[in-house]
Amino acid sequence: MISIRPLSPSLGAEVLDFQLSSNPSAEAVAAIRALWAQHKLLLFRNQSVDEPALVGFSQQFGALEIHVREEYLSPEHPEILYVSNIERDGRLIGILSDNEVGWHYDQIYLPQPAVGSLLMADTLPPEGGNTEFADMCAAWDALPKQTQQKLDGCLANQSYEAFNQAYSVPTNNKQKARSPDIHHPIVRTHPVTGRKALYLCPGMTTEIVGWDAEDSTEMLAFLFDWTTRPEFVYVHQWQPGDALMWDNACTMHRRDPFDAQHQRLMKRTTILPQAEVGMPF
Ligand code: OGA
Ligand code: MN
User: Fold this and answer.
1) pTM for the full model?
2) What residue owns the CA closest to ligand 1's atom 3?
3) What's the gap in Å between 119 CA and the centre of ligand 2?
């Protein structure tokens, strides 16, 4: 039996007394899969997980993406992306350094976006670097009916380039070719819960396709403000041994900056959609 404790009124649950490993029981995987869909964000505390175990556990939930930023992958386990401000041999070992990272979904810019990510704290600064999550189902549900009707069926343009300009470093040409701008529906239906969720984010969504530019800008500004209202957001303050697993179809996330004097290293796996579940749109 797996027990949980809610993290906030809207989203998130802490999974109690559970150790991540390469070989969880089939029952545990099924239970976690259901909790993941229901709560959208799962916290596992006091973990001690090496890289093979992080990969092995994550693989229980789907194939893992090898991230386009190959310069930030774990040398031994390319399924793991380092998120870090640590420099070794004169170069950053991880993505996103120590600056603020704006609201985004992981890999919204891919034709088959990731269904989730698992982020394991390895080295933490004494403060700062909180990660926030917004519940995009709750944000959709609370929208006025008229706005819902306007948005349902629309596509938006998603740009990894826009995100990199604002928060990261530019991709090289090969990476650019693998992550061009792409259109996705603004409203997704979650494949497990059947709930609708908004699918747009300040960090990567540049316009509503086919709308007049002014209307698109105005609507996006309204939605960016709306979706990040405190009632839809959970703020995570990291503790050593924390691992977070989020649903990437119905949450977006951002990160606070932290003091560049301190080191932070997080290790991320990125879970792809399962063929049998199909595209979650
Ligand atoms: C990520 C991410 C935020 C953080 O790994 O996808 O956005 O807290 N990380 O470093
Ligand atoms: Mn992210």
Assistant:
1) 0.96
2) 255
3) 9
Q: Is 85 in the pocket of ligand 1 (CB under 6 A)?
A: no
Which ligand 1 atom is the nearest neighbour of the CA of 119? Answer: 5
| Per-residue pLDDT tens over the stretch 42-85 | 999 999 999 999 999 999 999 999 999 999 999 999 999 999 99
Q: Are 139 and 226 in contact (CB under 8 A)?
A: yes
What is the end-to-end Cα distance of the chain in Å, rounded?
Answer: 32
Ligand approaching nearest to the C-alpha of 254: 1
Q: Read off the pLDDT band of 218 (50, 70, 90).
A: very high
The stretch 194-220 carries a mean pLDDT of 97
Query: Domain 3-271: which topology?
Result: Double-stranded beta-helix (3.60.130)
- With a CB cutoff of 8 Å and minimum separation 6, the contacts of 175 are 68, 69, 70
Q: Which residue reads 């503790």 in tokens? A: 239
Pocket flag, ligand 1, residue 119 (CB < 6 Å): yes
Q: Structural domain boundaries of the chain?
A: 3-271
Query: Which atom, in ligand 1's list, is nearest to the CA of 268?
Result: 5
